[in-house]
Amino acid sequence: MSNITIKTAEDIAGMRVAGRLGSEVLDYITPFVKPGITTGELDRLCHDYMVNVQGTIPAPLNYCPPGYTPYPKSVCTSVNDVICHGIPGDKVLKNGDVINIDVTVIKDGYHGDTSRMFFVGEPSILARRLSEITYECMWLGISKIKPGAHLGDIGHVIQQHAEKAGYSVVREFCGHGIGKIFHEEPQVLHYGRPGTLEKLVPGMIFTVEPMINAGRREIREMGDGWTIKTKDRSLSAQWEHTVLVTETGYEILTQSAGTPPPPAFIVPTAAPQAIDA
Ligand code: MF3
Ligand code: CO
Ligand code: CO
Q: Which residues 6+ apart lie within 8 Å of 11 measured at CB?
């Protein structure tokens, strides 16, 4: 039996607000991601913006799932071969680095969880391609979301696209249901087979957040209890949106003025289209 919650209209309204605010933290931090800044300074800027400007709570701060030590910072900063959960600190960003910044805010009890990739100065050809393919993976997965589709449909298209490009999908971490709870059912695997796993129903809310490695999929856990790196030290990329299953398809909840546009292959179907006069 599944324990996937179906959100009420009130929940969905709250999740739209939290999602927009989470995305606005990424908009805010974007101009600061430059050579010479430290990941700790990025964390401090995000923290102060959330707490003092938005009146949101940074969900990661002191977050402590079973088997973990409390997470010590307000965002995750995952640079180069760090797959996820990089802890901000003294690391100075340099030209050519790639960084994922993962933000989760809590507003009125609801969580908005989103991450983007950023290039520090000029990226390598590989870093640019890995980030682009990963972005397409996220969007291909999202494009499968509609009532009656299965979670396995999402994982399948993500895995297909990543592996066709010569990359690999991280298996140990996945997307997740989200609402008043940061991580809840279902698990959203970024690999799999079409038609398998849970059937989607309007009112479900979950994240799609593929972690794609340029090399092999195996991971290494660092001694800080959080940071996850690629075992072969290859680059890794990740993008994340929080998404609602609607009656006709999906709605991206983590949207704001600075949200990057979807890839060209995405045909909007979820909402009625405006007709130019
Ligand atoms: N935001 C991450 C996710 O997408 C979770 C980070 S947990 C933390 O699920 F404690 F590391 F912040
Ligand atoms: Co998430
Ligand atoms: Co996240």
A: 110, 179, 180, 205
